Amino acid sequence: MKGISLLNSLAIILGVVQTTCALGYNDQQQQILAPAANIKDNRPNIIFILVDDQDLLLDSINYMPNLNKHLAQEGTFYRNHFVTTALCCPSRVSLLTGRLAHNTNVTDVNPPYGGYPKFVERGFNENYLPVWLQNAGYNTLYTGKLFNAHTVDNYNSPFANGFNSSDFLLDPYTYSYLNATFQRDSDPPVSYEGQYTTDILKGKALDLLESAISQTDPFFLTIAPVAPHSNVHSNGPIIPGVDLKITAPISAERHKHLFKDVKIPRTPNFNPDEPSGVNWIARLPKQNESNIDYNDHFYRSRLRALQPVDELISEVVDILDENHILDNTYIIYTSDNGYHIGQHRLQAGKECGFEEDIRVPFIVRGPGVLPNYEELAITTHIDIAPTLFDITGLPLRSDFDGTPIPFKKELNSSDPVRHEHVTVEYWGLAIPEGKYNTLGPDNPEIITNNTYKSIRILSSEYDLYYSVWCSNEHQLYDLKTDPYELNNLYVTSDSPGNLNEGREILGVSLAKVIHRLDALLLVLKSCQGQTCIRPWDVLHPEGKVETIVDALDAKYDEFYNVQSKVSFSRCEFGYILDAEGPQTALTYRDGIEWHHWV
């Protein structure tokens, strides 16, 4: 079957009702009404496979033959896909709302700043992707991990909205590979002690898929295995420092023999001789051989934990094919965040702004999607909800901070000025995983000053990362010449002794580029809606600047020199506005005095 056109899709939508709510800056909620029962609904089905903590840059997808055979070779691999927060719960909320974490204010994995209770408190249980698609006539189903702090005690207070059927993994057993607890629809939780969690999930996912196929409505099925997340032992809430042990993931018995000689890729940033980064990362000791051997074991364990996921992909595709709906089903594969292990001397984990943590696999197969194609344009997790609206024929919401990814065309050639930036933001803790202490025996194992704001700028001409930490330390990497982010180029105009004095990027001084990047980050760290998609329009509302190259025109030098600079007044564990420094940028208009954006 073929997917119907956008025009026909829109024809079956009866209307949009806007109701007042207290969720966001627009104070509006759009509800999509279901199509009339007598209209045959041929909109595409969607299967969304969301794994947990999978790396892209450490080659794990190369150990998944079914992923490559059924999805990558039959679809499009988005090489430059980024998350906006390198932590599972904030990233998942952003993915399911199309909004950056500073707009959801779900910034952690546990209350008071995050987790399922914060998601509910912020009103998103009535206002996120499954609710929108369900109201639009989709049969919505979900199995696996939803959010952190979604527990055996609070799963029904309230139940997660938006699903015709669901079967959730629940804390404190979410990350226990041999002691999972699932909760189906409105039933009480059921323990599966002694059984392998991903195999249980596969059975539930395939049952939900068969059920969805038997219905007449198009379906949206999310399959969210915990693999390859670390195994977590906890007797209560999964809170750092509270009876918590994080170890390598456990593999299924049939996979324990695999990859016995595989090691972490020995890239230049793997356990480097000299420290890199700033803040606590710059103080990390070089790892010894015992530590490296353990991390190689950890890496192999992650690859083994992904094998049942790879098997699941093959079975999902087979069922779709057998039922003759494969050609009318989008299959999307991604992870909630990336992962590092050994790079920059870091122990296993995420939560940083380095490439390993913010780049994730993003592979799409479906109607009209280019097969065996690699897309290089920037895409992000906050683009996913708008994209699903686009392919299902729903009008875009005004509170989306992302923009649709047009699956059916090559972005590089057809849209050369599609946004070149990624907003990256993080608040709170960094938690090293495994048995080795991060900073040595006299230092705490949990890092408490890991708050930062960053921006990635990427095009065929340049490839930059700029970051400001809550300690007010800065990072600037030119990934064209330094792809492993080992040489921090940050300089200021008043640092004459700096080794990078006189160095240029894009034909101008580093200081000049830094002023532009900082102003762009100032806009993006508090942007809303369209200003997140087109931030240069805030700085240059006359529309004469669309890229950083445009902004480097010498006539703008004084304008950027006098901008407020991104800074923090202190480090906080959550999004607390009076700790966040300046919030508004000056705008430039020819012949008119500069003023603050309103």
Features:
598 residues, alpha/beta, Alkaline Phosphatase, subunit A, ten-stranded mixed beta sheet, four-stranded antiparallel beta sheet, 17 helices, disordered N terminus
How far apart, in Å, are the first and last alpha carbons? 49 Å
* Beta-strand percentage range: 15-25%
What's the pLDDT, averaged over the residues? 90
CATH fold label of the domain at 6-340 and 349-364 and 377-414: Alkaline Phosphatase, subunit A
| CATH evolutionary superfamily of the domain at 6-340 and 349-364 and 377-414 | Alkaline Phosphatase, subunit A
**Helical residues, percent:** 10-25%
Task: Give the name of the CATH architecture of the domain at 6-340 and 349-364 and 377-414.
Answer: 3-Layer(aba) Sandwich
Number of helices: 17
For the largest beta-sheet, the strand count, sense and barrel status come to: 10 strands, mixed
Going across the biggest sheet, name each strand in turn: 9-8-7-6-10-3-13-14-4-15
Q: What structural class do you assign from the helix and strand content?
A: alpha/beta
Q: CATH class of the domain at 6-340 and 349-364 and 377-414, anyone?
A: Alpha Beta
